[in-house]
Amino acid sequence: MVGVRMTTGWYIAFEGAEGCGKSTHAARLAATLDAVLTRETGGTAIGARIREILHDTSVTNLSHRAEALMAAADRAQHIEQVVAPALAAGRHVVSDRTVYSTLAYQGYGRGLPLQDIRSINEWAVDGHWPELVLLLVAPPEMVERRMRKRQLDRFEQEDAGFHQRVLAGFLEMAANDPHHWVVIDAGLDVDTVGATIRQAVTDRLGL
Ligand code: TMP
Asked: Is residue 130 part of a domain?
């Protein structure tokens, strides 16, 4: 168990590389827990506009620092408008990506200093760090199969090295903080993965 049950809801993060199935499982878990389902980037109307720029493949000259700040701006808005009020009202929040995606993509992936990313985001999240992080890891063949079916966005078009650094970053964060993170094998069938996630939530949060 992560800690004593609070009067507020629990903040649960789904993280992982593209094509790992986290959106599906975030939606399933949120339905099971009657939690608020949300996402970063794009969890608010303002965030949706920021997301458009971040994903647009015609945006070819966005600086890495600007990219990191835009992700943090999306987050500041999302935390203040969606996450904090829901938690304060006693609702659980399930978020498809959180602050850890900026550490993975802009920190490990782009190579920006992790300490800088952390401090910008300390400010953006205003004390709201997820209490449980479910890291979904799918085998590369499964990810490639799913990606072949999609129109790739600006991040998905990055080279294999970028995606390897992102995944290694997620795994390093999970290894360094096993108290908050659970690594889920997302290569199995959807119901088995869903059951593993459900069990992890019970084990860690008592829900
Ligand atoms: P997704 O919402 O379809 O998972 O795509 C979001 C993309 O944005 C994904 O490639 C990861 C990227 N991203 C960042 O680079 N930094 C961030 O902070 C977040 C939330 C997402």
From this structure: yes
